[in-house]
Amino acid sequence: MIKRILFFFLVALSFNVVKAQDINKPKLDSLLDVLAANNKTMGSLTISKDGKVVYQRSVGYSSVEAKTLADAHTKYRIGSISKIFTGVIIFQLVEEKKLTLDATLDKFYPQMPNASKITIAQLLSHRSGLFNLTNEPEFGTYMTRPQTHEFLLSKMAALKPDFAPSEKFKYSNTNFILLSYIAEKITGKAYPEIVKQRVINKIGLKDTYYGGKINAAANEALSYDYNDGWKVAVETDMSIPTGAGAMVSTPADLDKFIEALFAGKLISAASLAQMKPTIEGYGMAMHKSAFKDKVGYGHGGAIDGFLSSLQYFPEDKLAVCYIKNGGSYTPENIITGALSIYFNQPYAIPSFKSIALKTEDLDKYLGVYASPTFPLKITVSKDGATLIGQATGQGSLRLEAKEGDRFLFEPAGIEMVFYPEKHQFLLKQGGREVLFTKE
């Protein structure tokens, strides 16, 4: 549900012009220090400009149990950022005329539902309709153990499709697991070797590889959930996600990867143009992102307790990546703060002091709000002494009260600042702002 909310908010918010100046490194340090001190994050941030690292900082531990502090070379599972690697490999095969985007899935895996109607392009753009393997009810019973391609293919083939091919967009890891297998069939090599030869070695990535069981002694981060202390999260066996989410890397290496991609070092400009989203927020293995008036491209990732975000802004030749192995503060929210500071935009370091309100204190905020620049209305209600926000057709969000008529929904990085006397609130998310007025 949070992904849907993020999609609607991120594509619809208004933009303002920004200008890059000198980097305020002490303020960037303060942002990460505050988050770490409040157990909101553990992880690493890297910002690169024109191919050079201009800021790097790590906070927290790669291993809480061993008290190993994270550093610039700590390796993290990057989840679905792996899909960009797979997308690059597929487009390389297309350029080599070993595959076409209109080739159908039945040429490789005829046992899959609708295989004769599903194209490579639809797999890349999540328009196949194939059910997401990681959402199937039994996934948790086998996700921590090694699995064969045959076992996973039987699982994916048995899942009822969500819709007919090309009918609409719906994110599904099944698409990219199958693309990984297709690349293996065409090349005759295992995916770890394919990605090593075609991407990692080609551009000289030093801390990037196909993951295995986490080795904390090799500076590989474990992931954690926080509940009155850091608790080690479950560990997915990396035989399962393959090209949908099995890569391990660092923010610095991922910055270098996406810079090389946009510099034409991995695929042609024509192929890159097909990867990039056009109208929707997702193209072929790539998301569209934004900060103020700037358009960026990249991907997010989630696996076990790891969350990550990689964004590249071509006009500024600016790459930014944050990967966390623990804490509830989203990478997108951290990147928004980092970009605000980088571009010398007004930005307040987060405060995590909550305030207690009575149910009657919330009455001045209640109502239905709309904005001419936003496609959905937002209804503000209450449940006892908790304020509730709900966009049309979306799930309800329980908002945390802060000082100054401010309310947060931290998991999605949403802030709502109310102006009761004007019957308005300002919605902030991902560096964008929209003013809503009560109907």
Automatic annotation (TrEMBL):
The keyword Signal applies. Residues 1-20 form the signal peptide. Residues 44-329 form the Beta-lactamase-related domain. It comes from the Bacteria. Gene3D superfamilies: DD-peptidase/beta-lactamase superfamily. InterPro entries: AmpC-like, Beta-lactam-related, Beta-lactam/transpept-like. The keyword Transmembrane helix does not apply. Keywords: Signal. It holds the Pfam family Beta-lactamase. This is Beta-lactamase-related domain-containing protein. It comes from Mucilaginibacter pedocola.
